[in-house]
Amino acid sequence: MRVTIKVLREIGEFGLINRIRKWITSSNPSLLQGIGDDVAVIEMGMKSLLVTTDILIEGIHFNRSWIDPYQLGRKALAVNLSDIASMGGTPKYFLISIGLPKNLPLPFVSSFYRGLKMEAKQFRVELIGGDTSLSQKIVINICLLGEEKKQNLLFRKGARVGDDLFVSGTLGDAALGLKILQERGKIKGTEGLINKHLSPCPRVELGQTIAKHHWATAMIDVSDGLLIDTSHLLEESGVGARVWEDRIPLSRLYRKWVHSFSKDPFQFALSGGEDYELLFTAPGKMGKRISSLSHSLKIPITRIGKILPQKEGLRMIGKDGKKYSPSCLGFEHFK
Ligand code: ADP
Ligand code: MG
């Protein structure tokens, strides 16, 4: 009998994570959330401890010819801050492990740490340690710790049928910015898009405000693409959703440049990664409070869809009002 051995390409990043989740089960009652959300949550008395980690690898997540070390330092921390933001948590401390090639100029490392320090200062978090190793390519891994009262936390699970689906900011700018860098370099007039890719701004204050007022039922940050992150939220909540294409928030620059890089004007907004916006669900009666929060924080928040029973899956509603099932949901490693 021939045994077929699967390779990672066949199951993808999320197929692998689902398997890891089955291999490793925890029965510790203090673990409020293990594998399966943006952040792990551990009960620690009055407050919960939040723990998240993210890796950046040269040639996979960044390219030294596009991003400078200062921006890289800021971004390495920003992507972790975004995960704490998606729980409504308060980031506090972080550790950083770096793998570096031996011919790397020292000023690269000092600029990287300047960026890291600036991002840490802005979000009031402190570096408390890490690890350093030789590596052929630059590898950066941050583990960020945070805290929050248990009752204020928002998970991927919790969305209910009938809830509205909201997203902050505009979508697709970072993915289009990356595409521009890859195909044409830093061309004039596209700086706003490129900066969204190089210097993401985590929505920490927005996440905390939404969570502490108990307006939302579930939340996730959009890091791999709107549709794939929506599908994670739906899966964890055991629901489906409809998303209206003409409600997807697009920036002026996105609308101006998207046609030069894709036939599908929604490609980057629906399945491009690295928006680091917040996607959340809330009952209809919260709509007014959410729009006044959007005004006071000066961050757009758009109602883009509706939560449906699980059997409906994730449906897009096109401009013509017709339903369609999207083919590519977003970025996934190994695929
Ligand atoms: P995010 O995009 O928010 O960073 P991921 O898709 O990377 O989330 O991870 C989803 C969940 O799987 C998280 O709970 C994360 O901690 C967990 N996870 C990811 N990779 C691994 C791994 N190699 N081993 C164990 N858990 C993992
Ligand atoms: Mg996340």
Short synopsis of the structure:
With 335 residues, the chain is an alpha+beta fold.
The structure class reads alpha+beta
Strand order of the largest sheet: 8-10-7-11-9-12-13
Order of helices and strands: HEEEHEHEEEHHHEHEHHEHEEE
Give me the Rg, rounded: 20 Å
Question: What is the terminal-to-terminal distance?
Answer: 28 Å
Kindly report the average pLDDT value.
96
Strand content: 25-35%
Basic shape: globular
**Beta-strand segment tally:** 13
Helix share, percent: 25-40%
What is the helix tally? 10
Largest sheet report:
7 strands, mixed
* Small molecules held by this entry: adenosine-5'-diphosphate, magnesium ion
What are the low-pLDDT stretches, counting only 5+ consecutive residues below 50?
Answer: none
What would your notes on this structure say?
A hairpin with a 2-residue loop joins strand 2 and strand 3. The chain has about 325 residues and is of the alpha+beta class. Helices cover about 35% and strands about 25% of the residues. The strands form 2 sheets. A 7-stranded mixed sheet has the order 8-10-7-11-9-12-13, with helices on both faces. A 6-stranded mixed sheet has the order 1-2-3-6-4-5, with helices on one face. The mean pLDDT is about 95. The longest helix has 17 residues. It is globular, with a radius of gyration of 20 Å. The protein has 10 helices and 13 strands. Helix 2 packs parallel to helix 3, helix 2 runs parallel beside helix 6 and helix 4 packs across helix 8. The site of adenosine-5'-diphosphate has 10 residues, from helix 1.
